[in-house]
Design a protein that fits this description.
Layout lengths: L1 E7 L3 E8 L2 E5 L4 H10 L6 E3 L5 H4 L2 H8 L2 E4 L11 E2 L5 E4 L2 E7 L8 E5 L2 E5 L2 E2 L2 E2 L8 H12 L7 E4 L4 H11 L4 H15 L7 E2 H7 L8 H10 L8 H14 L1
Parallel strand pairs: 3-4, 4-5, 5-6, 10-13
Antiparallel strand pairs: 1-2, 2-3, 7-8, 8-9, 9-10, 11-12, 13-14
């Protein structure tokens, strides 16, 4: 089994999954980086998965397909950005050779955003970041994103490791601490990330359970987050969890 990631465009990640003779690239926004990652592990991926269509994640897809003869899979709702050979909409599990990959549809960041889960790893694209969530400025809908967080994401196993499409932890965690200055878990996570950065290393993945302790977008029902949003947002007051999520996303967009 192989699970590896490689950074490109400063903070993007492409992922490689392999089992037996079969392998998959996830979000090859830079074809050269994706192909080098596969070559370094001496595998020839037969499949390409996309968590969503934005070009910083899908821009290398056509070149990878041409180089490897790989099948490209993604949600047809994001086909304006890339051309999937197979639509993942409505599928709970994908059989990709020896790999069995779970699919969770989470519209919001884009109409066709999905999460992929494989062997305890949760590939979250731009929907869920370490300490934050994706914005909705480029074809997204914050109300739909709220429903994805409060529905399918809330139901996921906390033991899953979170592997996002970008490393924005150093920007997201200070925002989380501005909302909850007394959140010791968020402060400890920021220290871990900063130590990794100082050492020139990649930050370690967090689990979904750990994110639920530090990520304000997973904590909108907590009294401390409710109070912080009410104090900072013009919407303020008594809001539903979904409306509070939307207000929090708007607050993050302004900072």
């Amino acid at each position: 089994m192989i699970f590896d990631r490689r950074r490109y465009h400063r903070d993007n990640y492409v992922y490689l999954l392999a089992e037996g003779e079969d392998s998959v690239l996830v979000d090859p926004g830079d074809a050269a980086v994706a192909l080098a990652l596969a070559a370094d592990h001496a595998v020839r991926p037969r499949f390409v998965l996309h968590t969503h269509g934005h070009l910083d994640h899908s821009g290398g897809s056509a070149e990878v397909r041409a180089a490897l003869g790989a099948e490209v899979l993604g949600h047809a709702a994001d086909a304006a950005w890339f051309a999937p050979d197979r639509d993942v909409a409505g599928h709970r599990t994908l059989a990709l050779g020896a790999l069995r990959v779970a699919v969770h549809e989470v519209p919001g960041h884009t109409p066709g955003s999905v999460l992929f889960a494989w062997r305890g790893k949760l590939l979250t694209g731009d929907t869920l970041f370490w300490g934050g969530c994706g914005n909705c400025r480029h074809g997204g809908d914050p109300a739909r994103l709220a429903q994805s967080f409060l529905g399918p994401i809330a139901a996921l196993d906390g033991a899953l490791e979170v592997h996002p499409g970008h490393d924005y932890a150093e920007a997201n965690l200070p925002f989380a601490l501005a909302l909850e200055p007394g959140n010791a878990a968020a402060r400890a996570r920021l220290e871990v990330v900063e130590r990794a950065r100082a050492a020139g290393a990649e930050p370690p993945a967090s689990t979904l359970a750990e994110e639920r302790e530090v990520n304000p977008f997973l904590r909108v029902a907590k009294p401390s987050i409710r109070d912080a949003i009410a104090a900072r947002s013009p919407e303020g007051g008594e809001l539903t969890d979904a409306a509070r999520f939307v207000a929090l996303r708007a607050l993050r967009d302004r900072l």
